[in-house]
Amino acid sequence: MDTMPQDLTTKPALRVLLAGPRGFCAGVDRAIRVVEEALRRYGAPVYVRHEIVHNRTVVEDLEKQGAVFVDELTEVPAHAHVVFSAHGVPKSVPAEALRRGLTYLDATCPLVSKVHREAERHFAGGGPDTVHILMIGHAGHPEVQGTMGQLPDGAMTLIQNAAEARAVTPADPARIAFITQTTLSVDDTAEIVEILRARFPAIRGPKKEDICYATTNRQAAVKVIAPESDLVIVIGSPNSSNSLRLREVAERAGAARAILLPKADVLDIALLQGVRTLGITAGASAPEVLVDQLLARLGAHFTLAIEERSVTTEDVVFKLPAPLAD
């Protein structure tokens, strides 16, 4: 319940540190534009397999525009338009879409697609140069399912943590490689990679880091504000991997507390009792409007002193897929 005083003359002071970058990344922005442009060109409904990005506010906004979200392609009528989410899909999904006569648009983040291509290069078509791939990621996450679905069953082994990295026993330690989910904790992944490299000196890795620039930047930014914060609020959905990692990183970086908040109206203001400095960030799938709404909610209870803390400026823009690019 909202228990803080609301009279303007008695509102307590609250210092707010806004982490930057925060919120939408280029891959999320592109995925949303794919759905919006498909709706503009083809009209409603346009079907979307799974949440286009892991944020209910985004999904609900697109639903209002005419998008219909489904779990599987069997829910999509024949000859309809369907969009694949930013997380990527197994190869079996576009193949099924073609069999059913669906017109599909692939909104997979280009940085996720890059990991897919790395896996294919390592696998080398199952020929004599094939290596077994260790995928660092979280079981059940759509990106992991999509990436592991690029290759035949058994071509990859999922590694979720340091303990599994210490226990994995590949058939030929001289012929293995690793790839990673793009939204992992930078520090946790570095530990896992260090273990794998120590155990398997011949292991092959990506030429460039798989964890995407946006995940890296948002974690670096929250590390800056966390040590000064009595509480860090990470705006993001509970099924958003990058948002969950931000909350973990904030606590490890020195925040007294860190919580995940889907949207402003579910915040219990009582949680801010005794908080003098509040850190705020947002996961890569959370729109900036959610930050604005949180600040407005806080402003009703506190006199805010807002400071921006930015570690870098992002200017990455991804083009729309070919059918929509003109």
Describe this structure in words.
By secondary structure, the protein is α/β, with parallel strands linked by helices. The chain folds into three domains: about 15-25 and about 215-310, Cobalt-precorrin-4 Transmethylase, domain 1 (3-Layer(aba) Sandwich), CATH 3.40.1010; about 25-110, Rossmann fold, CATH 3.40.50; about 110-210, Cobalt-precorrin-4 Transmethylase, domain 1 (3-Layer(aba) Sandwich), CATH 3.40.1010. The chain has helices at about 25-40, 55-65, 90-100, 110-125, 140-150, 160-165, 185-200, 215-225, 240-250, 290-300, 320-325, and strands spanning about 15-20, 45-50, 65-70, 80-85, 105, 130-135, 155-160, 175-180, 230-235, 260, 275-280, 305-310. The strands form three sheets. The chain has a five-stranded parallel beta sheet with strand order 10-9-11-1-12, sandwiched between helices. Helix 4 (about 110-125) packs parallel to helix 5. The longest helix is centred in the N-terminal third of the chain and has 17 residues, at about 25-40. The N and C termini lie far apart (about 50 Å).
